[in-house]
Design goal:
The chain is mostly helical. It contains nine helices and no strands.
């Protein structure tokens, strides 16, 4: 179905390669590509280091809380994907409405995040027990740390969106590369000291730094 639709729109031009302005195109794509690459590494590096330093059972414990956070992070991802095209268009045409839509997005995400954070923090034990059973009770403090990370990520998502739509994605890329490097060293320092919870602390610290950086760029 996809091939049929593509041919109906582009015809046989789909097989043609154009090298006009290829340097400019590669430069633009590389910025988004590197951000995507380091963004994924940033998100998973704690699990990788945890597995190499502590073992697979600790990774399972950590991932039990991590998967809950990952599921809830779908909310800002869906909203970001919905707002991105509109915000990109408004930045070039109407700066006032661009600021308005970003402020509205920030308020919506904060309203969603607050009850989620409070619920996860104060009811982490029954949530873990309900989802995984009592054998995963050690994941409770990890989920509490992740509840704070969720609040940070929800709150700063519009600031990251503002950087992208203001044609400053290269700044966001640099922030993500630096954050990944910091996360690498923090995990190697904190995990031997505190075990599984050390990885959660490292994630909290780095997400806080990223959030502060996003806000600072938009000041």
């Amino acid at each position: 179905l996809s091939v049929k639709k593509t041919f109906s729109l582009l015809g046989h031009n789909i097989f043609k390669v154009h090298f006009d302005n290829w340097r400019t195109t590669i430069k633009k794509v590389l910025v988004f590509g590197l951000h995507y690459l380091f963004g994924n590494l940033f998100f998973k590096i704690d699990t990788l280091i945890l597995g190499s330093l502590v073992g697979d059972s600790s990774v399972g414990l950590y991932q039990s809380a991590f998967k809950i956070m990952l599921l809830l992070l779908l909310f800002p991802e869906i909203l970001r994907s919905s707002v991105l095209p509109v915000a990109s268009r408004l930045f070039d045409r109407d700066q006032e409405n661009w600021e308005t839509i970003n402020k509205l997005t920030s308020k919506i995400l904060l309203l969603i995040a607050l009850p989620i954070t409070v619920t996860l923090f104060f009811f982490s034990e029954p949530i873990i027990t309900l989802v995984y059973g009592s054998k995963y009770i050690e994941a409770v403090p990890i989920l509490r740390v992740f509840s704070i990370i969720l609040l940070i990520r929800f709150y700063v998502e519009p600031y990251g969106l503002m950087i992208t739509t203001a044609h400053n994605q290269h700044i966001r890329m640099v922030i993500m590369i630096i954050a990944t490097i910091i996360a690498y060293f923090l995990n190697y320092y904190l995990i031997p000291l505190y075990g599984v919870i050390g990885a959660a602390y490292a994630s909290l610290a780095v997400n806080f730094l990223v959030g502060i950086s996003y806000i600072a760029v938009n000041l």
